[in-house]
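If I may wish for something, please walk me through the protein I am sending here so I can picture the backbone:
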Amino acid sequence: MVLRLIARLGLASATVATAVTLTIGADRGLGYFLPLEAVTDNLVFSPNSYHAFDMLEMEFEIKANNLGFRGPPINPAIRPSVRLIGCGDSFMLGWGVDYEQTWLRVLEREVRSQGHDIECLNLGKIGTGAAAILDQLHRVLPLLEPDIVLIGLPQRAHIEQPPPMPVSHRTRDAIKHYRFRWYPNIMSRFPRDNPMKLALRDRILVRQQTRLDSISDDQRERLASIDQRLATALAEGNLPPGLLKLLVEQDVGNPIVPTEQLNPSSSKLEREVLALVGELRPIKAMCDRFGARLAVVVYPTTKFSSSEVNKIYEQLGFTYSPDQLATDVPDEIALQACDRLDVPCVTVSNAFRSRESGAQLFYPLDGHLTPEGNDILGRLLLTSALGWIESRQ
C-alpha cells in the first residue's frame, strides 16, 4: 500500500510538473509569435498613448509604445545582443525633450557607433521611487530579460526607503514575482487596478494646482518682479514643475542647500551612505535573481552643477553658496554606497561644471536637462557603458 501511495504521488507530481512546463512553453510561444500590442498592464504610461506639453521653457511630446513606456514599439522576444533598461525619475524619462534627444537614446547611438548591437529601453517615470522601481522590475525583468539595469539617481535626492513590509505583503510580492517570472507574456495581458485614470498631463496639472494654491503672496510678487513671463505662467497655472516644487518645499530666505549637507560630519555621511545602501540592496537582489547587471548613474542637478540657475534662485529669495559648486559630498555618498554593494556607479558633476560656460545645460527655471545637457550626459556615459557590456561577455 505504501508503494502504491508513493507511485500515485509520483504520478501526480509528474503530471503537475508536465502541465506547468507546457504552460510556461505556451507563454514563451505567445511572446515570440504575438507582439504585445494589446498589453493593458502598462509599465509607465497607458500603452500607445500620446502626451504633448507646451510649457514656459519647453515644448515636447511623449509617445508611449505598445508596452507603455517611451520609445518605439518592441517585441520582447526579438532581442539584440545587449538589452539595457533605464529606471528612474523624470531625469531618466527625459522630461523637457523629445525622445530622440533623451540622454539614454544618445547613449544607445554612441554605443552602436562602436559596433555593439545594443538596445536601450527607457522606463523612466515622473516622481518614481524605490517601491515603484521594485514593482516595475517584478514585471520588467521576466518580460524583457535585460542584460543591464541602469538606475538613475539625482544628486542628493535619493530614491526613498520604503517602510518594512508586513509578512502578508512579502507573501503577496513573492507570488507576484514568480507569477511574472514564469508567465510574463500571459500576465502582461491582464489589467491591473489603476486608480490614476487621468491622462498624464491632467495629473500633472492637478498636482500643479495643489502646489500653486500654497504659494504665498510674497512669492508671487517676487516671481512677477523677476520676469513678467513668470507672472503670466503663474496666473495660467503653467509654472515650471521644478521651480514650483522649490517654492513650495523650501522657505524663502533659507539656503538652497543647508550647510550641514555641504560639510557633513563623518557620522552623518555614514548614515546617508547606509540609507542609500538600504534603498539599492533590494533592487540589486532583484537584478541578481534574473541575471541582470545593475549599474547606477548619478546625474547632475542645478543645486550642485549650475551657477547660472542658482543665481536665479537667489533672485527668488533663496541664499546660495559657491561651495555648492565645489562639493563632492552628493557624489561621494552614491559612490560609497555602490562600492559596498559591488555596483558600478558613474558621476558626472565635475564634467558638467566644466562645460557650463557658454552652454545651457539645464532649463533655468525648471531644472531638467536641455537637449544639449542630455547630449553631453549620453556621451559622457559611453566609456562606462562599454565597460558594462564587456563585463557581461
